[in-house]
Design goal:
There is one protein chain. By secondary structure, this protein is α+β, with helices and mostly antiparallel strands. 34% of the residues lie in helices and 15% in strands. The chain has twelve helices and ten strands. This is Beta-lactamase family protein.
């Protein structure tokens, strides 16, 4: 691990105004190697400093932080199986949604269900908006391609809520509470926290601040399986630590199974919920990213992790600099092979 190199390249990216700011946490085992906030949480309308307590819109990190652990707990308890079909998991008759009658939990977790990548919802109530997604035709043949889909985890989030008998934003407490993730939540109270601002939308003069950035998550009231969760770098570090070193809130056997590549036969690198960045004996490096500029990587062999939270969509989503920054950081933290 080249921690000084990692810190230098991140600071240089902010100093060059490639991103407004970041919070980073790099750890190995029980040790913390780098914990830092640098730059600005907001540029417009006025500069606000980034701190380690700044709350970020996690975007698609919601998938693995909120939904993945709940599905694993249901699998471990026997309430679900990987081959459980979507209608059964939702308590619905398969003939009501014939195109989804064979869709399995495994396919949803690995993005092989054939669902469209994303789409806007229709309707007035949250239930009507979800129904519009359930009615959408498949875009690909199930099981034949690994194509990333927000709908997969929207569906999984609703399955978890249905199985647990409570809304997703309450159900996550079964994981976040024991892990001490007290500031990780959907729809956080704006008066309580300082946030990393996201983009200035068309026709607006102020950035999105303290409310969910993702359009589909907003249409679903800020609570969705694919996006909507907020957190800070310390809570995400607690989550990473629990995955790698074990915790009673997370079923260890299912965690280990989740980090293995499940779509290699399709030419893909999808694990159960995660992306496999480096496949190797002794433990893969897996992770996930979020559209707003968030990232989490886990090294299952060397028991190290990296949480990088940035506000790369502030003030505009047109910023494409973060990909190269992430690649350089990954090489500094996990080495080049």
């Amino acid at each position: 691990m080249q921690i000084s190199r990692a810190q230098s390249l991140l600071r240089a990216a902010v100093d060059a105004r490639r991103i407004p700011g970041y919070a980073v946490l790099i750890g190995r085992g029980d040790g913390v190697l780098l914990r830092e906030a640098y730059g600005c949480a907001q540029w417009i309308p006025s500069e606000m400093p980034m701190t380690v307590d700044t709350l970020f819109d996690l975007a698609s990190l919601t998938k693995v932080t909120a939904v993945w652990p709940l599905i694993l707990r249901l699998l471990d308890a026997g309430a679900l199986a990987l081959d459980t079909r979507w209608p059964a998991a939702m308590g619905l008759p398969p003939e009501k949604y014939p195109h989804l009658s064979q869709t399995t939990i495994f396919q949803l977790l690995t993005h092989t269900a054939g669902l469209t990548e994303f789409m806007d919802t229709e309707g007035g109530s949250r239930e009507e908006r979800l129904e519009s997604l359930y009615r959408a035709p498949l875009k690909y043949a199930p099981g034949e391609q690994a194509v990333y889909s927000d709908l997969s985890f929207i569906f999984l989030g609703e399955i978890a809520a249905r199985q647990l008998g409570m809304p997703l934003d309450r159900a996550v407490g079964a994981v976040f509470g024991p892990l001490g993730m007290r500031d990780t939540m959907f729809n956080p109270p704006r008066e309580k926290y300082a946030f990393a601002a996201t983009e200035i939308r068309a026709g607006q003069t102020l950035p999105v601040y303290g409310t969910v950035h993702d359009e589909r998550a907003r249409q679903l009231g800020g609570v969705a399986g694919h996006a909507g969760l907020f957190s800070h770098v310390d809570d995400m570090g607690r989550f990473a630590h629990a995955i790698l070193l074990g915790h009673e809130a997370l079923p260890g056997a299912w965690v280990a199974r989740s980090l293995a590549n499940q779509t290699e036969h399709l030419g893909g690198n999808r694990a159960l919920g995660w992306v496999v960045y480096r496949q190797r004996p002794g433990g893969n490096i897996v992770g996930h990213t979020g559209f707003t500029g968030t990232s989490l990587w886990l090294d299952a062999r060397d028991m190290c992790y990296c949480v990088l939270l940035t506000n790369r969509v502030h003030p505009s989503r047109a910023n494409a600099e973060l990909g190269a920054i992430r690649e350089a950081l990954f090489c500094a933290v996990f080495g080049e092979e």
